[in-house]
Design a protein that fits this description.
Helices cover 28% and strands 12% of the residues. The chain has helices spanning 8-24, 58-68, 70-77, 79-84, 231-241, 261-265, 281-286, 306-314, 344-355, 358-363, 366-370, 376-381, 387-398; strands spanning 108-113, 125-128, 134-138, 149-152, 167-171, 185-188, 195-196, 222-224, 246-248, 291-295, 317-321, 336-337.
């Protein structure tokens, strides 16, 4: 018997239901439209020497690197990259030179930080800034009884500013930064905003134990800690960590037996042995690993957070997934940008090879030993550490309380 041909509608319906079955079974997966981690990656693979020389002592790796390359060799090898990452970048604001002093309209500016805020208390100070200007930054309404500006971070500024009132400053350092619509000055992590505050400064990690170990674990290569288990970040971490020996200390993908295990592994990392806190370990514990996996909550331009800078400061090599312009914020040849590999397997192979090559590994630390900072110096100069003077300059330029209302 001859079969009747299927009409177009029937074929389309069959394909649609087949598609639904595959999608909901997890066989098919689509990338998110939001600014989350994107795969696959794009650029050609990195290559290292095939000679394996496992090491556990970072200082011995430095000595080997010194004898085989040294700072002069490093600067010559990476001269194009160093030049590229030392030029002016649209990702970072630069402090004005002495020629901009004429724009300042006030010799002294006081900023009153309003309400509860995470901004460190030790920022409170009287600062001596550029051009002979002084700046009082305080949370005390007694010390700043007639402030020139009010800084709001967790609450929005007043709806209106009347003539003679302090300028309203609003700060938002989160990935989806948004102006309140009520501010006279806006602070965020992006260079396009009125005042930029990067995460590169030291004030983002007060109260940590800064013991740095010269011992590098050669059996467990990667440190990972995250307690905000975002699905796409978890998926990305899992896809890499399953290929590499690692310790995961946070709530997400924990494989060490609990949240307080870092201090059990490394008791020297507790600031106060009688009252240990899990966050004491962040830098100290990281220093025992050759690599730290750093994945941003959200991928967006210039959103380079403390996750990356913690790893750099600990003496580990960051494996980074995040801002596409991350190289504008870090020293030349200091991080492994995970997005520069075509597959996770390729990235894992590179990490394993690097872990067994003391010269190549030490080269990722050359920037701090040779003083090759590139744009990292500018990222530090635009950080929270320097925010008081830079905000006071912006307030002075506007005239503080004498600024016109709009």
């Amino acid at each position: 018997m001859q079969l009747k041909p299927l009409n177009t509608f029937t074929v389309t319906l069959m394909l649609f239901f087949t598609f639904l079955i595959l999608f909901f079974s997890g066989f098919l997966e689509f990338p998110s439209v939001s600014s989350s981690i994107q795969q696959p990656f794009s650029t050609p693979p990195h290559t290292l020497s095939s000679k394996s020389r496992p090491f556990t002592d970072l200082l011995s790796a430095f000595r080997t690197w010194d004898s085989q390359m040294g700072c002069a060799g490093f600067k010559l090898k990476h001269q194009d990259l160093i030049r590229l990452l030392s030029n002016s970048s649209g990702s970072l604001q630069e402090a004005g030179g002495e020629s901009s002093c004429h724009q300042l309209r006030m010799e002294h500016v006081s900023v009153l930080v309003k309400g509860w805020t995470w901004i460190p208390d030790n920022l409170d100070n009287l600062y001596s800034c550029r051009c002979g200007m002084s700046c009082l930054w305080t949370k005390s309404s007694v010390l700043a009884d007639k402030p020139d500006a009010l800084l709001f971070e967790t609450t929005t500024p007043p709806f209106q500013r009347h003539s003679g009132d302090p300028l309203r400053v609003y700060m938002d350092l989160e990935a989806g930064r948004k102006r309140s619509g009520r501010e006279d000055l806006f602070i965020s992590y992006h260079a396009k905003d009125d005042v930029q505050s990067t995460y590169a400064g030291a004030l983002f990690h007060n109260g940590r134990n800064y013991h740095v170990s010269s011992y590098k674990n050669n059996d467990t290569l990667v440190y990972w800690s995250s307690s905000r288990c975002l699905p796409q970040r978890n998926q990305l971490a899992k896809s890499l960590l399953k290929l590499l020996p690692h310790h995961s200390f946070g709530k997400c993908l924990n494989n060490v037996g609990g949240l307080d295990m870092a201090l059990s592994f490394y008791p020297e990392c507790a600031n106060d042995a009688s009252n240990p806190k899990w966050w004491d370990h962040l830098h100290c514990a990281m220093s025992h690993y050759k690599f730290v996996l750093a994945i941003e909550n959200t991928v967006t331009e210039s959103y380079v957070t403390e996750k990356l800078f913690y790893a750099l400061d600990s003496g580990a090599v960051p494996i980074y997934f995040g801002a596409p312009n991350v190289l504008d914020f870090v020293p030349p040849h200091s991080i492994i940008d995970g997005t520069k590999f075509s597959t996770m397997e390729e990235l894992a192979s590179y990490v394993k090879a690097l872990a067994n090559d003391p010269v190549a590994y030490a080269e990722y630390h050359a920037w701090r030993r040779c003083g090759v900072l590139g744009n990292y110096a500018k990222a530090r100069a635009a950080s929270l550490d320097t925010l008081p003077c830079r905000l006071c300059e912006a307030v002075s330029t506007k005239g503080g309380r004498n600024a016109r209302t709009e």
